[in-house]
Specification:
With 242 residues, this protein is of the alpha/beta class. Helices cover 33% and strands 23% of the residues. It contains nine helices and twelve strands. α2 packs across α6 and α3 runs parallel beside α4.
């Protein structure tokens, strides 16, 4: 149940390693499109440094505002290749995560963190090259007083995330691929990437998207008119003589 507290699940089913490896080849935009334009987290989820990229399986965290207790619980559940994903019970931007937790997460093999709250110690995190996608960068500290949950379904930045789903994050944001769809989405992303490579070469050679995508007829039906010059256009604007 989403939003249930007091639960910590040690072992969860993760997406198969081959699918995760394949998905890691592609960007967030490609995977989002290949999956049918679904799965994106809210656009305010931004990487704390440019060029950050991560792909891994989700260890989910449900926390309460200003309380990072469950991040410490989650550290025990992390396996190599995981990404921690945190959602909160209500809106919050406090700096729940910093370099000490990042050191712990990295020792467990974590690939990064996606947190619908605040992150701090960002200079240290950049130096460590530990990628974080956060709602905010904010130095405010947190407490350890209220129990949440680990490895239960959560809502993170508007998206439903189950433990073991695949998380892909880069400069374009964050997308979640359900564990059961990982193989199919990886295959679809591969096909899309191959198709885009052909289109990119045609564009490089000077062809127009108007022609590659067959847009001219539909634009005409939508009412777009071409004029050879301004004089021809102006002639259509002249009112009747009085």
């Amino acid at each position: 149940m989403i939003g249930e507290s007091g639960i910590a699940v040690r072992n969860v089913k993760r997406a198969d390693a081959a699918s995760v490896k394949e998905l890691s080849k592609y960007g967030v935009a490609t995977i989002h499109e290949a999956m049918g334009r679904v799965g994106l987290l809210a656009p305010y989820m931004r990487p704390i440094y440019p060029g950050a990229k991560a792909c891994g399986t989700a260890v989910t965290i449900f926390a309460h505002p200003g309380d990072n207790w469950m991040l410490h619980v989650a550290a025990e559940m992390l396996l190599a290749g995981d990404i921690a994903v945190l959602g909160t019970s209500s809106d919050n931007a406090d700096g729940m995560f910093g370099d000490l937790l990042a050191t712990s997460f990295r020792a467990r093999g974590a690939m990064g963190l996606v947190i619908d709250a605040g992150c701090r110690d960002t200079a240290d995190l950049r130096s460590m090259q530990f990628p974080v996608w956060a709602k905010a960068v904010y130095g405010k500290g947190t407490v350890k007083a209220t129990v949440g949950s680990v490895n239960t379904p959560i809502i993170c930045a508007g998206a439903l995330v189950h433990p073991g789903d695949v998380i892909i994050a880069d400069d374009d944001g964050v997308v979640v691929v359900p564990e059961a769809r990982a193989a199919a989405v990886a295959e679809a992303a591969s096909r899309r990437e191959a198709k885009e490579a052909v289109t990119r070469e045609r564009l490089r050679q000077g062809e127009l998207g108007l022609d590659i995508y067959g847009m001219r007829d539909t634009l005409a039906k939508a009412g777009l008119q071409y004029f050879d010059d301004e004089t021809a256009y102006a002639a259509t604007q002249a009112g009747p003589r009085k």
